[in-house]
Specification:
The protein has 193 residues and is of the alpha/beta class. The chain contains 6 helices and 7 strands. It is 29% helix and 21% strand. It starts with a strand and ends with a helix.
Length: 193
Amino acid sequence: MKIFFDTEFTGLHQNTTLISIGMISEDGRKFYAEFNDYDKTQVDSWLQENVIDNLLFKAPPKDQQEYYMASRTEDNIIGNYLYEYYNLDMRGSTEEIKVELEKWLSQFDSVEMWSDCLAYDWVLFCQIFGHAFNIPKNVYYIPFDICTMMKLKGIDPDISREEFVENSVSGVRHNSLYDAKVIKACYEKLLTI
């Protein structure tokens, strides 16, 4: 199963921290998580306006507990097992997200991870699990990216992804789940070229 994913994080530097991760499988199952333990001191005005302000969940007041929800899709063919054919939206700590991400990924026999530009996304994905040797066993250890596909097809990898897919995906840029959907749409279009 191909999983298209994107991350939002606190900057293009070595000590960056995850703000959110969004994933969509080739058959449409979704995983979206917002981290509550990112380094807020690294958030600048651009990140605030373009990423933080577009998060789905707002941080609860300090006296309230963090929350998450899991929901199964309507096409759950098993119907009685929570961790088959389901989507998940959540907000939590890195450890809580790791636990739920492992469960979500376990519904697939084998996984190929696909991103836009892998330099940060793959490293940050592996960081959720401590390091690359700890990623779930069903996840192939070599990631793939659409930038390389574009280059091989003679398309400028710097092209606007939204324009490339003719704005066919609705949502807000720099939301990791929206961006993952755009990556999936780019991949699908690249297969036809």
